[in-house]
Amino acid sequence: MSDSAAGSMTFFRVHLDRGRNAFAAMEEESEDLYEIAQVLLDPATGYYTDEVSELLEYNGSALLVMDRVTLHEEWRGHGLGVILAAEAIFRLMPGCRAVACSPGVSDLSADSLRNEAEWDRVTTKIARGWEQLGFLPYRDNVLVLSPTSLVLEDQRSQLRRRLVELGAAWSAATRA
């Protein structure tokens, strides 16, 4: 048996109730986090905007941001990113009122992605994967998932079955 890294994931848990303005903290951390903060948070208070607050049931106050899910090229195209992200979100979301992401391509090394049509196809496919987990399009390419949504739990069991199928298929292929 050998280990093989399939890629990496980066999540940020943003505490909105710890005294520091979360909007400012996200702005300082990265452009990607700032773009999400601009959509979901009030710059003056660092807390969810009234509109976002009305959209989400209270289930804690933190914001979980799925910043990056990157798979090595040989692992792409099998739905593995969605499977692994679902497991990570499920484990990280307790105490969060929202999970957010901004779907897009972070690996710009592929020549095929220099074509605008291919770029659009890939980013649309990524967004559909996140929507499969229960993320809803909110505004300005920001998707939001409520931890109280049952979609993630429902999808998680199906995705776990898919992971078992992928494992069996890959195991059979390596023995052949």
Question: How would you sum up this structure, described in words?
Answer:
With 176 residues, this protein is α+β, with helices and mostly antiparallel strands. The protein has one domain: Aminopeptidase (3-Layer(aba) Sandwich), CATH 3.40.630. Helix content is 45%, strand content 18%. The chain has a 5-stranded mixed sheet with strand order 1-2-3-5-4. β4 and β5 form a beta hairpin. α1 packs antiparallel against α2 and α4 crosses α6. The longest helix is centred in the last third of the chain and has 25 residues. It is globular, with a radius of gyration of 17 Å.
Give the strand order, joined by hyphens, for the main sheet. 1-2-3-5-4
Unreliable segments of 5+ consecutive residues: none
Give the count of helical stretches.
6
Mean pLDDT: 87
Q: Strand percentage, roughly? A: 15-25%
Named at the architecture level, the CATH assignment is 3-Layer(aba) Sandwich
User: Domains counted in the coordinates: how many?
Assistant: 1
CATH class: Alpha Beta
Spatial shape: globular
- Total strands: 5
The radius of gyration over CA amounts to 17 Å
What percent of residues adopt helix (DSSP H or I)? 40-55%
**Could you give the distance between the termini?**
16 Å
Topology as a string of helices (H) and strands (E)? EHHHEHEHEEH
The CATH topology, please?
A: Aminopeptidase
The main pleated sheet reads as: 5 strands, mixed
Q: Please state the structural category.
A: alpha+beta
Highlighted features:
176 residues; alpha+beta; Aminopeptidase; 5-stranded mixed β-sheet; 6 helices; 45% helix
